[in-house]
Write a structure and sequence with these properties.
The structure holds two protein chains of two kinds. By secondary structure, chain A is of the alpha+beta class. Chain A is built from seven helices and 32 strands. In chain A, the strands form eight sheets. Chain A has a five-stranded mixed sheet with strand order 4-5-6-7-11. Chain A has a five-stranded antiparallel sheet with strand order 17-18-19-20-32. A four-stranded antiparallel sheet of chain A has the order 3-31-30-29, with no helix packed on it. In chain A, helix 2 crosses helix 4 and helix 2 packs parallel to helix 5. Chain A is globular. In chain B, helix 7 runs antiparallel to helix 8. Chain B is α+β, with helices and mostly antiparallel strands. In chain B, strand 27 and strand 28 form a beta hairpin. Chain B folds into three domains: about 50 residues; about 325 residues, Methylamine Dehydrogenase, Chain H, CATH 2.130.10.10; about 80 residues, no CATH class. Classes of the chains: A alpha+beta, B alpha+beta. The interface between A and B is large, with 48 and 67 residues. Strand 2 of chain A pairs antiparallel with strand 1 of chain B.
């Protein structure tokens, strides 16, 4: 590039002079179709009061975020009874399966929020739904002691605008003696697991389970396969225990017993040795599979039993739905939720799913509706221009920088809670504070070392059984 | 990149402060996050230093002499003769003999110049193309002129009121709140127009809403020397007693009062970095002050009616018909005479002002306006988003909107700008909490406890004796945490005393008294 033209340096009488001389051609554009030229100088001297300006921008960004926070997108109604379970199809982002308490299974198209296909067959409540990883088979199990395999329609049917609700017949129906509570499909193979009276491993083509595990005589309530290792699965039972199974061995591998029952388990898809539990004592616990002595993190914010939990495909967040009629989104390592969603019309939330592109959260609840929410409440959906995206990233970063200051914190943390939840939460807080104070006083008045505090991560585990 | 290239980069300039060790942070998660952030800071500082080294389009000006030749003996004509035509046009003389000594102001990008003559002459010029935009007569004395946030509006301090005019010359506002204003300043980031009047009253007015943010009486009499610190937007006033006071809009008392000279202050100027201040007094002295330590770094002998710092730290001072420009070659503010310029005898300089982003010094004097070339005074590389000398009207409009969105609140003006973004370190558990503070808290808690209303219970449970007992209980309960704290502190003090008793007898009087 030609260096900019300056005054020619003349050496006369022992003097060298040069003055700043800018020619307009280098600093303005040639034609009106060109972009304007932008010059940057990052010298801090030129940017006076940069910190104050950034703070003002953070405050404005926090306020704008609250103005644009409209997370509720829509409800999908069609079911006649409460929704008990949902399943994602990993091959097709726009579809979601839902099963209800009267045996109705539907495939929904999220963008039009309408039913694409209905799967009629179950006689009682549908208790579990799972889609195979290649997206061809849907497995459902229910209170009528049957497991049904359905073939998932291809994407073309779902895209048709006048898709009517057509029923289809199951590929296979397998009957067993006891009712089933949950089902999950292996991530990388042909096996799926059902749980009820015991843990059964089935193959698609066999009408009897390939293997069965039983440890203890209580009903097993939920099951999940590990995303990375296709032979590892985790189950939770009514005797407040969590059991890890390895299919290559004949015996279950690890078991811990907690103080309360776990309703659902979810594995972190990005860190497959970690999994999180949705527990009856209103908390979620994250564990590392290799060290089950204590939880990695305790996520506390719900005020009633947590019914379902699902991880985002980024592995950085998870969503929980609870009996207290709210849906909360937590960060994978945070003790408190970053977001809460509630509506007057949404009753007890029984199942939640994070969409496969990490932008939406779907909740199925007692009031027979599936609700679609945004994962980031103030996010602008759709295609963003590069400048819009950069501006949004800048605003997020500047809010992050100043979010600990009182004015910004007050705005960023503010969420409207329904009165019963607000009251229940403050009641729980008072109770926890009182317990803590009692503990402190006990320790202050006893010989040092006699009163040992067990960390919360360990406190909830009753025993660990190999 | 070779190691020598890495060493050439001036990374420290972009780091904005020392890297504090993170060992004191106990929280592991927080420590991890802060380490990542520090890493990002150092990366961005390196990237900015590389931009400075390789990508900046222009280089600064200079004037170098060889041998025994002194730079301040070189005349303006010689410089103009050596320089190219475009630059030589920047040195001019406009003769306007009848309309009084002139004051002038440049927009922040150095594109437009506003001149005001004492006898009422207002004129706005585009100095890049040397065009006159608008000139008119207001038929009143004009004491000061100032551009507002861009070239579209400017303010003139006239005889009784200040007026705001449009670029076209229309009078837009008459600001009646400050009578007989003597000097004006505009705080760019806050959109505040500051004026000082002949009774010594300081007025801060928001030019976007018209709201008066601060109106303070200095109490120190008539004052017409006012300047704003570009680093933290603090206003400095120079008074007739030799005092310099620093003000912010939200407090009625000055932040700092410094006795600078033995006579009245004649002129005041701030360096861009915010901690160097030059003051000139009638006691024939010009002093350079360091505002972090509040002590004089340099003292020169000389008289100056007006002072101005350039973007690169050159100091111009003028009195009578002589203009002197001082420069510090090294960074540590030891100023030496760099250039001098003498006008025709009898001309009296009114105000000197460096033109931003150019090597030009403009000054208004009793018979008009002139400008001279001062190599090395302007910043050669501008940032388009801060000030763009080649601004189009579309860019100007967008910049105005962005500036309004980023407008700062007047509460943010403070001496130490690094405090923004930090947390107040006072909490209840702090040892630094004063005794009065604690007692006040205890009194407040007791008052709250005593004022509590108790429900009247039935079936004989609200007997007067029982009510009294309950009242006493609540008072004791409210007092208990304070008493516990006091007991803890007593124990701590006793422990400390015991440890001090272990000093040898000769040193015991030097033991720290808690």
């Amino acid at each position: 590039m030609k260096p900019p033209s300056h005054s020619k340096i003349k050496i006369v009488d022992g003097m060298k002079v040069k003055v700043i001389s800018r020619s307009a051609e280098e600093f303005t554009r040639e034609r009106s179709q060109d972009l304007q030229r932008v010059f940057r100088n990052f010298d801090p001297k030129l940017h006076a009061q940069e910190k104050a300006v950034e703070y003002a921008r953070a405050l404005n960004a926090a306020k704008l975020e609250k103005i644009f926070a409209k997370p509720f997108l829509g409800a999908m109604d069609g079911h006649v009874d409460a929704i008990s379970c949902m399943a994602k199809n990993p091959n097709y982002l726009k579809g979601i399966f839902s099963g209800s308490m009267d045996g109705d299974i539907r495939l929904w198209d999220i963008s039009s929020r309408s039913t694409v296909q209905q799967f009629v067959g179950h006689k009682g409540a549908v208790r579990g739904l799972a889609a195979s990883t290649d997206g061809s088979i849907l497995v459902s199990c229910g209170n009528d002691c049957t497991v049904r395999l359905w073939s998932i329609p291809g994407p073309k049917i779902a895209d048709l605008d006048d898709a009517s609700e057509n029923a289809s017949n199951p590929l296979a129906v397998y009957v067993s003696k006891n009712a089933f509570r949950a089902v999950d499909h292996q991530w990388d193979g042909n096996l799926f697991a059902t749980v009820g009276a015991q843990v059964d491993i089935w193959d698609h083509s066999r009408s009897e389970p390939v293997t069965s595990f039983a440890w203890g005589s209580d009903t097993v309530v939920s099951v999940r396969f590990n995303p990375a290792h296709k032979d590892i699965l985790a189950t939770s039972a009514s005797d407040r225990s969590i059991t890890l199974y390895d299919l290559r061995m004949a015996l279950p591998s690890k078991k811990i017993v907690m103080q309360t029952r776990t309703n659902a388990i979810a594995w972190n898809p990005r860190e497959p040795m970690n999994f999180s539990l949705a527990n009856e004592d209103c908390n979620c616990y994250s564990y590392d599979m290799r060290n089950m002595e204590q939880a990695k993190c305790v996520h506390r914010d719900h005020v009633s039993a947590v019914m379902d939990i699902d991880y985002s495909p980024t592995g950085r967040e998870f969503v929980t739905g609870s009996y207290d009629r709210t849906v909360r989104i937590f960060q994978y390592n945070a003790g408190h939720s970053r977001e809460i969603y509630h509506t007057k019309r949404m009753q007890r939330v029984f199942c939640v799913k994070f969409s496969c592109d990490a932008s939406y959260v779907i909740s199925g609840s007692d009031d027979t509706n599936l609700r679609l929410w945004k994962a980031k409440a103030s996010e602008q959906l759709g295609v963003l221009l590069p400048r819009e995206r950069k501006k949004q990233e800048y605003l997020d970063a500047v809010k992050e920088r100043f979010k600990h200051l009182p004015e910004v914190k007050r705005i960023v943390r503010h969420r409207h809670l329904p009165k019963p939840i607000y009251k229940a939460a403050s009641l729980r807080r008072t109770m926890a504070d009182a317990e803590k104070k009692k503990e402190e006083r006990k320790r202050a008045h006893s010989a040092p070392g006699t009163v040992v505090t067990v960390p919360l991560r360990k406190r909830r585990i009753v025993s660990e059984i190999e | 990149m070779a190691l020598s290239d890495e060493e050439d980069l001036d990374i420290k300039k972009y780091l904005r402060g020392e890297n504090k060790g993170l060992k004191a942070v106990k929280d592991k998660k927080l420590r991890g996050q802060l380490t990542v952030r520090e890493e990002l800071y150092s990366q961005s500082a390196k990237a900015a230093a590389k931009v400075e080294k390789w990508l900046l389009p222009s280089e600064g000006g200079y004037l170098e002499t060889e041998g025994l030749e002194k730079s301040w003996r070189i005349k303006q004509e010689n410089i103009v003769h050596e320089v190219d035509i475009l630059s030589s046009r920047k040195a001019f003389d406009i003769v306007l003999p009848d309309l009084g000594p002139y004051v002038l102001d440049y927009t922040s990008n150095g594109h437009y110049m506003l001149v005001g003559g004492r006898r009422g002459h207002l004129a706005m010029m585009d100095v890049m193309s040397m065009n006159l935009i608008k000139e008119f007569q207001v038929r009143e004395t004009i004491r000061d002129v100032k551009f507002l946030h861009n070239d579209q509006f400017f303010a003139a301090a006239q005889k009784k009121y200040s007026y705001i005019y449009n670029k076209v010359g229309t009078e837009i506002h008459c600001l009646k709140e400050n009578l007989f204003p003597l000097s004006l300043q505009f705080l760019q980031n806050y959109f505040l127009l500051v004026s000082i009047n002949k009774y010594g009253q300081l007025l801060y007015q928001d030019t976007t809403t018209g709201e008066i943010v601060g109106h303070h009486r200095t109490g120190l009499g008539r004052c017409d020397v006012m300047n704003a610190n570009p680093f933290n937007s603090v206003i400095a006033l120079g008074h007739n007693s030799g005092k310099v006071t620093l003000w912010k809009p939200t407090s009625a008392n000055p932040l700092v009062k410094m006795l600078c000279h033995h006579g009245p202050i004649a002129a005041l100027a701030f360096h861009n970095n915010g901690h160097l201040m030059a003051t000139a007094g009638m006691d024939h002295k010009i002093k350079l002050w360091d505002l972090r330590k509040f002590e004089a770094v340099h003292t020169f002998k000389g008289h100056a009616k007006t002072l101005d710092f350039s973007q690169r730290g050159l100091l111009a001072m003028a009195s009578g018909s002589l203009i002197k420009i001082w420069r510090d070659d090294s960074g540590n503010s030891d100023y030496q005479l760099y250039m001098s310029h003498r006008m025709l005898k009898g001309y009296q300089v009114g105000e000197v002002r460096f033109r931003p982003y150019e090597d030009v010094l403009g000054f208004g004097h009793s018979t008009g306006i002139s400008s001279i070339l001062v190599p090395g005074s302007g910043e050669p590389n501008f940032d388009t988003f801060v000030a763009n000398p080649f601004e189009t009207s579309k860019q100007r409009r967008e910049k105005e909107v962005h500036a309004l969105l980023d407008k700062l609140q007047p509460e943010m003006i403070m001496m130490d700008q690094t405090k923004i973004g930090g947390l107040k370190s006072g909490s209840r558990a702090e040892e630094g909490k004063s005794k009065e503070g604690r007692e006040a808290e205890m009194d407040a808690a007791l008052a709250a406890a005593k004022g509590e209303k108790r429900k009247k219970k039935t079936k004989g449970r609200s007997k007067p004796s029982k009510i009294e007992k309950k009242k006493k209980e609540t008072v004791i309960k409210a007092k208990r945490p304070f008493i516990e704290e006091r007991v803890k502190e007593e124990e701590k003090r006793k422990k400390q005393k015991v440890s001090e008793m272990q000093l040898p007898l000769a040193l015991q009087r030097f033991a720290r008294s808690s």
